[in-house]
Amino acid sequence: MLKYFYFTRFSIDEGERIAIYVNNKESPQYGLYTRNYDYLKRIINAINPHYPSKGIHEVLEKLEMMVVNVKKPEHTKDLIPVGNGIFNLKTKKLEDYTPEHVFSSKVSTNYDPKYNEVENIPKIDNWTLDDWLSNLSKDEQGRPDDQVFQLLWQVLADSLNGNYTRRKAILLNSEHGNSGKGTFQSLITNLVGEHNVATLKVNEFSERFAMSRLMGKSVCIGDDNPNGYIRDSSNFNSVITGDVVNIEYKGKDSFTTQLTPTVIQSFNGLPHFSNKGGT
Q: CB-based contacts of 173: which residues, under 8 Å, 6+ apart?
């Protein structure tokens, strides 16, 4: 398998999972290095369908011993993995996926240069996304707020690169219902791709298996958070700042890794955190 597939480790830490490069253009994970062992087991089974489950597990253990090279994932704001390649913000050009680029998450939407031209911006009965965001940014007196309008576009831009952390969470807060928070989050989900989005509220970050739900995700959305008391926000803080967290799947060995999804949480009144440091 080492002859035909690209493998790496993201660190030398004990228990660290090996990652395999997804070279299948039909796969939603094309161009990524994945540590999804179910995916790796399916590949082993496809190579030799006669292997029993025990044999597949033995091959996996052998691979873990043989893969010793370490390549850390790229955490750069200038390269954005999209559906049809890597968009380079510096050159404004689309580059091909290659095993030399190590990414663990992407967005599903393809880059199409024709939409850089104003006349090609999609309109629905003369309605545009700019119009909707402008309406969403209005204050209580119905006046558009240019700062909020710009901030909404910045949130969309940040959501496109889950491999780079700005060490900040995005909190959408409104004490009034029907404020558009849910629709805005749905826009992000459709832009990034539903399978690239995890759903996790602030108070769920401390649950035992919660961090495994963020593996390979570009965005984490928590809708309608309770505005009560958050006793333990340590994992929440660590994900925001890109620090190492412990990953545990049910019935499997745990390991540590760095997670960098864009974290977006909506509230109808902000909660109170027990841990004030960095919150």
A: 266, 267, 268, 269, 270
